[in-house]
Specification:
By secondary structure, the chain is α+β, with helices and mostly antiparallel strands. Helix content is about 55%, strand content about 15%. The longest helix is centred in the C-terminal third of the chain and has 33 residues.
Amino acid sequence: MKRIKFACLFLFLFAASLSAQDLAKQFQQGNDLYKKKDYAGAAKAYESVVKKGYSSEGLYFNLANAYFRLNDVPKAVLYYEKAKNLNPNDEDIQYNLNLAKLRTVDKIEPKGEISFYEFMKNIIDFQPSVRWGAYAVVCVWIALLLFALFLFSQTFIFKKTGFYGGIIFLVFFLVFLALGWERHEMEIEPYAIIMTTESDVKTSPEDSSGNAFVLHGGTKVKIQENVGEWNYIRLTDGKAGWAKMTDMEKI
């Protein structure tokens, strides 16, 4: 496994409240227990921070590592996925997530995708939506400055640079804005991890209906609809059906 992240994730909270010191202490306690190979104690310490409503890439990553060591594959996958949502380009997270998936029972093969679609998806996944948005803001400000140069400069070369430069950065702004929007849509899509040892996926949202297939702990599903206590889920290989909400936990 890759290293755990000893990130100073809560330093900014010291100025916010006195309770932040306790959260930082609990987080560090989790790190210390992990180093001592007390993985159950480490998981409990990290969970206590999560239950207070705080989240971060490092917190989720370390918690996932603890559950991985405890061989709790569903929770390990869940928290690696949560960490990946916050930093989709982190190689350590992806590496450990892949290790955890090797321990899952279900090996879902995605439906064949057009190579261009895969290429675009990889670009969109390269940064979280917030970062794509930040790039867009920077580009639009540069574009405005260059257009101002075009409008107010008395020199031909400056006017030409301002005009064409402004056009280029305006295009970059639109591209980054589109990438950010697509990434945001992907981030808010409701995905979940099967948390039970087995989950019977039904053909309709009722216990008496027939089984479509069976899923096992650690499998990632996409939630497309909800009826009562049932979620209509779809897998990357195209299979779909109804599963109990209590059998899964949203990422």
